[in-house]
Design brief:
about 100 residues, single chain, globular
Length: about 100
């Protein structure tokens, strides 16, 4: 369930509701976030509910001190297209950096 009582954290790739923050992977400077596949699907639903336009996602390996971007891991599309790509792909070992506006 997505928490609606707290303001979302504003990152360069979009807002992140408080309920996702503990489970999110952040860049070292916390400017961007990424989510595991299950959370990413829930986040896309939240974006739909909030009227946010989903633009794309990048696939990251959650490494330290920052992400390792997966070659060929970029996908452009709206929330429905991103949802379908996540459901049909093998992303379990990755986190997804979703871009919204």
């Amino acid at each position: 369930m997505i928490d609606g009582f707290e303001d979302p954290l504003h990152c360069s790739n979009g807002p992140l509701p408080a309920s996702f923050q503990v489970r999110a992977y952040f860049t070292a400077n916390r400017d961007e976030f990424a989510l595991g596949p299950g959370d990413a699907l829930e986040y896309l639903s939240w974006c739909d509910q909030e009227g946010l336009a989903v633009l794309s996602f990048d696939t990251w390996e959650p490494s330290q001190p920052g992400p390792t971007i997966v070659n060929g891991g970029e996908f452009e599309g709206d929330a429905a297209a991103c949802r379908e790509k996540i459901r049909s792909g093998d992303f379990e070992q990755f986190v997804l950096n979703i871009w919204v506006r």
